[in-house]
Amino acid sequence: MDPFSPDAPAWLHLLLVGGIGLCIGSFLNVVVHRLPRMLARDWRQQAFEVIRETEGERLPRPEEGYDLVKPRSHCPACGHMITAWENIPVVSYLVLRGRCRGCGAHISLRYPLVEALTGALSIVVLLQFGWGWVAAWALIYTWGLLALTFIDFDRTILPDNITLPLLWLGLLVNTQGLFTTLTDAIYGAAAGYLALWSIYWAFKLVTGKEGMGYGDFKLLSAVGAWLGWQLLPLTILLSSFVGAIVGLALILFRRHDRAQPIPFGPFLAAGGWIALMWGDWINQQYLNLTF
Questions:
Q1: How distant, in Å, are the alpha carbons of 12, 90, 138, 212 from that of 19?
Q2: Is residue 66's pLDDT more than 80?
Q3: Do 200 and 211 meet the contact criterion of CB atoms below 8 Å apart?
Q4: Residue 265 pLDDT > 80
Q5: Which residues contact 242 (CB under 8 A, 6 or more apart)?
């Protein structure tokens, strides 16, 4: 039986997408860990280039290659290379009981949690959209938002390497009208950027402080490119609601200093994902209650 066939049983589609989601989650762990370090290396090298051109100083030796593929994943404590069977999503963590096979060092619980979350959200996407191209593109949108969420939590940055391709991909997908019309997608991309850009400058003029980063503008622009301008107000509302709850919880449980900024990108991603899944239904329910 071909699991990729539209005529395959629904449970087989769910099993397939869940398994793919787990594997993608494992890859996202690599992206979240390595991409910020790759960017830091690139920025450092660019800074050296500027110093050489302006001051004539000798450049240091280029750093060794470091990307999403090399060097191989290894234990940071003992250098033990991770084998294929030690890298099976979730299963390997449970079999190894969260410990390195080489030295017994603790492995962060977040790795299997990211894998499990990616698998679970992938299944939810399939249940919502059914088997087909719409679900396939929705999965890519979901995985991109997950990567941005955890990178922003860790490093308070939203890399252009992900946000900009996500934005352009949303526009390309909607040339076929899969999630909204191309016109609404273009307006959504522009409105998403300008909405947060305006809030940023208004806040800065009033307080003299920066309330968010430019990566947030680009992320909301990407959401607008995928979903259209109509779902942007709901996305911002959902993002603010989720952010307020999480922020209060962190402060109440004394796990976050009030003076320390909380990245807004993860909440924008959460709002954008909820809007993709149930945005039209939520808007309709709101209109039914108010009119």
A1: 11, 11, 16, 36
A2: no
A3: yes
A4: yes
A5: 267, 270, 271
